[in-house]
């Protein structure tokens, strides 16, 4: 007889083999079979999502029970679970929290929706919409919507994403219209402004506002842009609206005189025009070096140079010039330049905390080698029961790395990204005292 551990190993091994079989499906099929394969794989994806949800909810229940048995305070029972799920799914802690919330609702409150997902009648996204649109309902009322929409497979058969969402919201209104009113009142507290990268060195600036405010802002920009177009301005209406937004938010007379400090890291070789290594804009990512050089010649900007020192073979950050006009120095600044974004694998969130890889309580030093840039969620997760982080013994010039061990014993390695590669060492009459060469950090502000 197999013991429990052996059976569990067989389960994961079988899933791995199934994945290999799916990838190895032959390509010389008839079109009819290809269509059947597409449909069958959609069912497999839905069934996988349902099984993932059950495993996620069970992991959460088990982790809470384990910590309760240890006598830990209730506020610590959930700490780090979302990050653990995110790592298991190769996702961020934020998305791990969403996966967890989705799983708990399906398993604990919406068994019919889970069943439709498991048999392939419902996609993961449509199940997510039903969970989202029933947010705010009591457990009993949510169960009513679950039964109304998903107890009979025919109810949602053939419906589009928007139709599924509309059907769910209509059921919520019939069962508890006040729930939508409560959600609307709560949503006002979620107003925010965010930005994210867009193609071609552009970025999206998004504002989540109450509808009357959003409509008012947009209508005002449209009205004033139309007046400027009518006066003969050569810009398009959309361009003028974008420029007006920047000018009114920043208080500047032109949209190009941006007063916010932006950090750009590029290699000395690229700056001097002999290399093709892209520059790196903090909070955005790679941009063409030619574009940065154009920014340097912008009359509206005040330019400032700070030297960073990188290993010419690996791109590892090794030192930073200590003097700069108007900006603080120290380990945190070097850590931010080195790590760029949260160091937890698959996270990608902005750095909010400079953290000790090995905690001070466990003998960790406050040094550059023992530092890591993390988002808030990942920083709090690593302090949870059962988590450990261990610095690697990096050799001089190696990229900084450390290991994360979750409560299940799974290990994940975090390695800092390389900086733009500096010029190779040239053996002329110059006395080179080390193998490190400069990388230029350009800061500009009005």
UniProtKB/TrEMBL annotation:
Cited InterPro entries: HNH, HNH_nuc
SMART domains: HNHc (SM00507)
Sorted UniProt keywords: Endonuclease, Hydrolase, Nuclease
Gene3D superfamilies documented for this protein: 1.10.30.50
Annotated ranges, domain HNH nuclease: 330-380
GO molecular function, one term: endonuclease activity
A Pfam family it matches: HNH
Source organism, top-level taxon: Bacteria
Protein name: HNH endonuclease
Organism whose genome encodes this protein: Antrihabitans spumae
Higher taxonomy: Bacteria, Bacillati, Actinomycetota, Actinomycetes, Mycobacteriales
